[in-house]
Each structure stands twice: as C-alpha cells, then as structure tokens.
Amino acid sequence: MYGMRMKINHNGQSVILRRFTKNDIPILVEHFDSMKIHMYTKGLFAQTLENEEEWYEKNRKNPDSCTWTIQPEGSEYPIGVTSLDNITSRYNFCTSGIIIWDSTWWGKGIASAAHLGRTLFAVEWLNRFAIRSSVREPNVASRRALEGVGYTVWGTEPISTERCGEFLNTHHLLWLHPKRINIYYPNGLPEIFRNGVKKAEEALALAKLEVEYL
Ligand SMILES: CC(C)(COP(=O)(O)OP(=O)(O)OC[C@H]1O[C@@H](n2cnc3c(N)ncnc32)[C@H](O)[C@@H]1OP(=O)(O)O)[C@@H](O)C(=O)NCCC(=O)NCCS
User: Fold this and answer.
1) What CATH code is carried by the domain that includes residue 83?
2) N or C end: fewer C-beta atoms under 10 angstroms in the chain?
3) Strand 211-213 to 6-10 pairing
4) In a domain, 154, yes or no
C-alpha cells in the first residue's frame, strides 16, 4: 500500500511524502542501476522498467507495507522512497527503510525530515510501538538520520555483506515508542535505550509541529 500525503517542514527544507504513481517508475529505474546509490543497500543488480512496474503492482496490493515517494520542494520529480514494512506484526513492530536515489539531494536534511513524518505516522496511525532498521557500518549519514529521531544501535553484525571487495559490518537499530516502554520492558528500560527514547520523545514533539497531513 502507499502512504497518505504529508508535508514536513524541517530545518528550512519542505519535503512531501506521497504515494507513487506509475509515472514515477521510469524516474526510479533511471537511478536504480547505480552502485553509488546501492553501495549500502541490499541492492546488487540493476532493475528494469518491467521489474519496477511489477514492484509497483505488488507493493500496491501489499497490506503489510506503507510506502511513500519523497519529493522536496524545488524538485520537479520524486527523489527517493521510504517505507514502513511488516506493519501488521502482531507484536506492534514494523521495519523501516529509505533510499534517496538522486544523490544531488544527499546531505540536505531530506532523510531527517522524512524520518519525522514516517515515525509520526507509524505511531499515530499504525499504532506501532517499535521500529527496527539496519545500516551498514560505513553509512554514517543513514545512521545519524535514524539516531536523530531516536533509533538506537543495539548490536553490530560482523562481516554481513561484501561491497567493492570489502566485507562490511551491519548495525541493527531499534526505535521505541516512549509511551509504550512498559509493555516491552515492564521491569524498566535498559540503559542502552535511554538516550534514544529521550530523543524519540523530542522527535515526536517536533514532528507534531513540523508534519502536516495534506
Ligand atoms: C543515507 C541517506 C538516506 C541519508 O539521507 P540524507 O538526506 O543525505 O541525510 P540528511 O541530510 O538528513 O543527514 C542525516 C545526518 O547525516 C549527516 N550526514 C549527511 N551526509 C553525511 C556524510 N556524507 N557523512 C557523514 N555524515 C553525513 C548529516 O549532517 C545529518 O547529521 P545530523 O542529524 O547529526 O545533523 C541517503 O544518503 C541515501 O539514500 N543514500 C543511498 C541509499 C542508502 O544508503 N539508504 C540507506 C540504507 S540504510
């Protein structure tokens, strides 16, 4: 399924998250044959228009996923994709992911803004209590964007993939809903998550101010 439209005004950036249309698919394909974009994702092979049209159709009908394309103000085209997956987990978890496929938009606060909207939606509309994600160790920008909204690295998997002749470790992260802590941790929040939960509280308060459903 595709996500409802929202606008996030964050640190001078205005970013729209909206559903995909079929017209967006060729733009995605154009950028999805780049190792620069996929260096730290799970992608290893280029996608064709046919593959991505199938993805669009499959995703459209998938009740377990909520996907948006990302379009910042000032861009005629969408520049990325972000999603919440496993949204029907009976344990109120979900997983999250993001790819900004147009690298000219990297480092401009787009992921940080998108994460605010995505996280607020996970909490306020999907009743998620926790969000999981993972990041390749060298992908500092991705880790920082996630930590900025309250995700915590809880563990690191050694040599989990090979990229460009080097074996990379993968960090695993968890975001915890500050008001649902007692459900997962009735005996108290483990120290490792304290800072993240504080940040999550701040991020949700900020998101309430900066996210607008259109
Ligand atoms: C990783 C990615 C999502 C980051 O998105 P972005 O919009 O460039 O990130 P932001 O501009 O919001 O920056 C997030 C944080 O990383 C920092 N950052 C940005 N680029 C950086 C870089 N090259 N090196 C180190 N830190 C960087 C920012 O300063 C910011 O930190 P702060 O919150 O402490 O200020 C984007 O580069 C991308 O899609 N890459 C390709 C696909 C990918 O790797 N997806 C993630 C898989 S886990």
Assistant:
1) 3.40.630.30
2) C
3) antiparallel
4) yes
| Residue whose CA is at the smallest distance from ligand 1 atom 18 | 141
Task: Indicate whether residue 116 lines ligand 1 (CB < 6 A).
Answer: no
Least Cα distance to 100 among 175, 172, 32 occurs for 32
In short, whether 100's Cβ falls inside 6 Å of ligand 1 is yes
pLDDT digits (tens, 9 = 90+) for 121-164: 999 999 999 999 999 999 999 999 999 999 999 999 999 999 99
pTM exceeds 0.90, yes or no: yes
Residue 77 sits in which domain range? 6-213
Q: Ligand 1 atom 27: the closest Cα is on which residue?
A: 141
Question: 212 C-alpha vs ligand 1 centroid, how far in Å?
Answer: 23
Which among 54, 107, 116 is positioned nearest to 82, based on CA atoms? 116
Please write the tens of the pLDDT for every residue from 63-122. 999 999 999 998 999 999 999 999 999 999 999 999 999 999 999 999 999 999 999 999
Q: Whose CA is nearest to atom 16 of ligand 1?
A: 141
Count of domains for the chain: 1
Nearest alpha-carbon partner for 46 in 27, 36, 56, 32: 32
117: in domain: yes
